């Protein structure tokens, strides 16, 4: 555990980034077009359940979300022989890397419609991950230290941010008139883990007099979680140890945040519905077990290695070399406890949607989903066609335009029986089949149990 924080900053960015998961509710996902599925209301709290049965989501499955947007895919890191290679990653990327990953793991979901009102309750775990890095750092890892002796190089910046929190939400939708419905979803957030390293730079220079190569990290990072960070001035070392309590698992009241979703739907005529929602207006907080760590000094290497040629002398495997580097970093940090509470905004989302019924079984849908997070905006413009097959199957298929650059074919489907409902939705069909090649993918699935509340 001594190098927990720095391994998050380096290994997760460069290795685990390929399988990060993340957590917006509806970011270009066609589930919002399936009127049979009550979780479609998560894109807009004003959407009512179509069924008046009590909907109970299956824990860990009902409403699970995986979302990934990046300028690289996981196969960049692996060769055709399925061997990892930073050189292959470096050449395939060709530019600075960036990625955002989101995930939602549902624990409890309940929803019920009674006449003109729909009430919902949910408890879920959410993860937000964002990062970017200088792709030249991949070359530095691949080459090792030996080629840089006698030179001066600087790599960076490297930035990485992650939040892990529990969300407790209550949703209320009410039909005001025959044409207008409004909805609100207040949320209480309990922070579990936070990590943020911004604009880290790594300099490499040679001390000719001492005949050592110096690796100098420059920057700082914030961390909060079930940990205890202490600095020993005698050893000049920062240690990170686990400090886990029952409160860290259930609800973290000292790192509480809040949020709210707002929306409305309007029917200008019987065939057309217009919906507008703004979601995740809110923040998480960082206060308890929170530390700011600053890099100081340099890591000096007198025994140099190379990582590009396994048959040559002084070879050190790139992955092992990276782990050795991160193990050394705690010796070069000074930690300070937060003196006051800090706030982190959630990804703010604007959802615009229009639906037009062609007949009792077919309809057209158009939506625009704009997300703003960490100073960056992303947009999904979607057009879908829905078809009801019998009384139990609903199918939606169409196209998504991501940031006006990429066209992604997507689909959604649901089966609604008397007591169970299954659904699946993705905005990128080809990458659902080949996830290792996915640069953009939004996947949502679930199982709902339906219980009649009407007397027999």
- Main β-sheet description: 21 strands, antiparallel
Q: Shape from CA axes?
A: elongated
| Main structural class | mainly beta
Question: How many individual helices?
Answer: 6
Task: Spell out the blueprint of helices and strands.
Layout: H1 4-14, E1 54-57, E2 64-70, H2 86-93, E3 97-114, E4 117-133, H3 136-143, E5 153-175, E6 180-207, E7 212-218, E8 220-224, E9 227-232, E10 237-242, H4 246-249, E11 256-266, E12 272-286, E13 290-295, E14 299-301, H5 318-328, E15 333-337, E16 342-345, E17 348-357, E18 362-373, E19 376-389, E20 393-402, E21 406-416, E22 420-426, H6 429-433, E23 440-451
Antiparallel strand pairs: 1-3, 1-23, 2-3, 2-23, 3-4, 4-5, 5-6, 6-7, 6-8, 6-11, 7-14, 8-13, 9-10, 11-12, 12-16, 12-17, 13-15, 17-18, 18-19, 19-20, 20-21, 21-22, 22-23
Helix pairs in contact: 1-5, 2-3
Question: How would you explain this protein's 3D organization?
Answer:
The N terminus is likely disordered. This protein has 456 residues and is mostly beta strands. The radius of gyration is 25 Å and the shape is elongated. The strands form 2 sheets. The protein has a 21-stranded antiparallel β-sheet that branches. A two-stranded antiparallel ribbon has the order 9-10. The relative contact order is 0.18.
Short description:
It contains six helices and 23 strands. The protein is mainly beta and 456 residues long. The longest helix is centred in the N-terminal third of the chain and has 11 residues, at 4-14.
